[in-house]
Amino acid sequence: MAAELQSYMARRGVKAIMMLMALSCLALVSKYYTTESSSSYYRRALFYRNDSSLQQGQFNSHFSWTDGNGGLHQLPIETVLSKSFSLSSYSEQSQIIPYYYKSELNMTGEDITIVTLVTRNRIPNLARLATQYQGPISTTIHISDDEEGEYTLDILQDAMNRNSAMRKYVDVHVVRDEFDRELNLWRNVAKLFARTEYVMQLDIDFYPCTNIRESVLNNPQAMALLQSGTAALVIPAFEFSKQEEGLDFRTFPKSKTELVNQYNQNEIEMFHSFWLPGHAPTDYERWTQLNKSNNTIYPVTTYQFSYEPYVIFKNQGSPWCDERFSGYGSNKAACLYELYISGVDYYVLPDDFIIHQTHAYPDQARNVERYYNRRLYTQFREEICIRLARRFIAQKKWDHPKSENLRDECASIKPYQRAIGRFV
Questions:
Q1: 96-202: what fold?
Q2: pTM, to two decimals
Q3: What is the rounded average pLDDT of the residues 102-122?
């Protein structure tokens, strides 16, 4: 054998043999070794229903608390979640997995978490957002309980492996069931598990062109408004007039000066300018005319119930999005309406902005869902006005500035007018 090896080495050369050995080692490694990201980067929870032993070893299955006498009490975590999200389609077949991936960032309370939701085809947007924002993000991803759902998780894991910013900044929470477009449920999950004092409600299709986080955290006026719990900061939203020009985020303006120049040349416009109530109260003409001499945060003075800005506000004590809104239309407006009626005023940031990344819309589904959600929104406004009015009256805050938004905005709703006379 030794003689044969010597003869082969003489014919092929030592270098060839070394190359052959190296390739053999690589083949063995690729066959028997699978890379696994360090748990210090993020944690992938186990949630397969048929392996209860693994589940119990990975995370708590009960919500626990201690009473005043030191007694320990427990509730199954599924009971807590089913109650928390009882207005949605959440059922015994649904599964919510908080922190499916948990960021490596050591977060502080005095920070701003982007709260958003993502689907399979928007995972690249999430990667771009994490790279640009460089701050905490809490996102919900919905998957179906089948092979397609597993495929989505594989794509998500690949993105995590490739993008260090996602590993550093993004907490991912999984909702696994068969109910599609439960947008407000997904928003609430992301908000519930956000780990900072303030949250930014943002759609995943928007790209933050400026350093919003640094701008707000270093602005004493902005921070005083957020700390009060009675203010939300509006980030002006734009889109390209020619939709095809909004496909590549790398071409987006990087400063307000650039943006205003393109706005004045009609290359960029208010987001969804065809539906003025959605964003017009931000007052884009005023915003674009602000300069260094009068560059300050200003209040929204023409609020109306279809207003849907993207906002930063205090997480603790703020209302949750009504989960009866399933699908497109009025779902975000309902979140912002209740926030406003609860006593939170809107203020516009003077320098920061976001731009919409163009994508296709499923128009047929949107039209059907909008029809039903518009009807629900009318009923919802009546309900929330009466419910919060009763709360303010019971708390003896009816004449307090906190109830002023409700008294002004709800006055035009006839069922509210009839009902409020019984309570005041």
A1: Rossmann fold (3.40.50)
A2: 0.83
A3: 93
